[in-house]
Amino acid sequence: MPIENTPLSVLELAVVAQGGNAGQAIADTVSVAKHVEQLGYRSIWLAEHHNMQHVASSATAVLIGHIAGHTHRIHVGSGGIMLPNHAPLMVAEQFGTLESIYPGRIELGLGRAPGTDQTTALALRRSNLNTAFSFPADVQELMSYFKNDDPDVKVRAFPGEGLKIPFYMLGSSTDSAHLAAHLGLPYAFAAHFAPSQLRSAVNIYRNEFRPSEQLAEPHVMVCVNAFGADTDAEAYRLATSLFQMFIGMVTNRRAPLPPPVDSLDAYWNEEIRQAVMRMAACTFIGDRKTLRSQFADFHRDVHYDELIVTSHIFDHQAKLRSFDVIRQAFS
């Protein structure tokens, strides 16, 4: 498929920037959604994380409704709902409600990770830490609530039953690739922070894919970091905010999203730099021409069907401009 025909989507975490707060992060996410809708991006997804002081997307379904209510056409979904944290029935009711309010615009991406640490996972799951092992069965149960047409079934989802909400399987390793292929669902890989098994997972998914009612052929979505600007140098400077965030993850010193810097030399040694570069292996930085070349090379390598971009940029106007440049790279 030519790169010009590639659907583009956005992943947002409502990250709190230095000097900001959750309210501002959510308002900025609404602004991003409105902007990328005008640019023709296909969807915007929100990610579920918990016990992270500088991430404001923990109540993911609530935030999806807020974003959908402030936009008109763009699809809004989860990237994803961490299903082990939730009863499938509750997810069916929440997304059935969202689909009833915003018909044809809601998407449900599912992940099996907790989206947090084990102590917080315990608080979420109320001592049931085995839910990750029941993930395939829970996915099937969740899907059944939307498909059910038997009035004698004792537990049913209202709203939800009979609604055709598209499902997506998320993964950052090869585990979910098998399940996505078996269920015939689109597969979205989190290469923006865990790129090491990307190619293996995509190959497994394509080789094992079984057609389903939702999907006749495999559909690979890859989430990457992307930074666009009018010059390569400006784009790289914007990306230093992400590199500082990754440094904080590697060193366990998490902080609000920091402003960009001219040099990272003072922030890392060689060991930390290599760890950050492994995490950031699927990061694309440059002006329109540079990004176009990078994305085309990546497409020849991975053969993605859709690209999801996430952009941790400190300055909000620069972030909006970055989405312009990324869109232009595919035009």
UniProtKB/TrEMBL annotation:
NCBIfam families reported in the protein's UniProt record: oxido_grp_1
A Pfam family of this chain: Bac_luciferase
Name under which the protein is recorded: LLM class flavin-dependent oxidoreductase
Family, similarity comment: To bacterial alkanal monooxygenase alpha and beta chains.
Domain Luciferase-like: start-end pairs: 12-300
Stored InterPro entries: Bact_Lucif_Oxidored (IPR050766), CmoO-like (IPR019949), Luciferase-like_dom (IPR011251), Luciferase-like_sf (IPR036661)
Top-level taxon of the source organism: Bacteria
